Amino acid sequence: MAIATLALVFAMTGGAYAASKYVITSTKQIKPSVLKSLQGKAGKAGANGAAGANGAAGPQGPAGPAGAAGAKGENGAAGEAGAKGEAGAKGATGTKGEKGEPGETGFTSTLPSGKTETGTWTATQYALPSEAEVEIPISFPIPVKEASSEGFILYKEETDKGEGEGHEAGCTGTVEHPTAPSGVLCIYTGEEELVNIATIPFPIFNGARGYSPAGTVMRFHGTETGAHVKMQGSFAVTAPAPTS
After folding, report:
1. How does pLDDT run across 44-56, given as a tens digit for each residue?
2. What is the mean pLDDT of residues 188-196?
3. What is the pTM (predicted TM-score) of this model?
4. Contact 178, 188 (CB under 8 A)
5. End-to-end alpha-carbon separation of the chain, Å?
6. Residue 2 and residue 5: Cα distance in Å, rounded?
7. What is the phi/psi pair of residue 232, to 5°?
8. Where are the domains of the chain?
9. In sequence order, which residues have a C-beta less than 8 Å from that of residue 20 and are 6 or more positions away?
10. Element (H, E) at 241
11. CA distance 122 to 229
12. Whole-number pLDDT of residue 189
């Protein structure tokens, strides 16, 4: 359009100049209707030019607000156990504790007060002459402090029936589980084979009834020639409480 306008200007200038020597210096000097008719139509758009090079990166924008927390996921399966770690360094030695009270020794020279000791005995003697005696020793594993006359022999029938002098004195155990009250020796019989034998219901030590600190003796008396005795049993003795 600019080129057409300039051509027109030159053409008119030349004609005007030749006719009347009038010079057109502006499009305002041309009648609008004439000027409009002289305007050309816009041509077709040309092809797109090649893309320009990328510009430099702009500065980083401000951080956006934090997003909402997501839902908690399910726990995953437990993993395999790891290898055993090495032993740690030895810790420092702790402070020494206070000394404890002295303990009791395993040895005692006499049976402690209120304690019970037990044992077994046996006797076998055949073909005794008339008026012969059989003595069966009862030895205490641990001596008692004092001798006592409180000793009883409980024959099997007496133990089974729960009667007799010894039972009344507190000898209420059995040959399998001998017991004795404080200050008393209880002798229990089990197997009994007595032929022509006189029994005595209490032990005798040094001719007196009872027991010494070390033990006592059971005595049986044969009444006829050929008498015999075969017996087994147990005993229990309990040390008496100290007297004030």
Report:
1. 887 888 888 888 8
2. 89
3. 0.56
4. yes
5. 150
6. 5
7. -140, 155
8. 2-38, 116-238
9. none
10. none
11. 10
12. 94
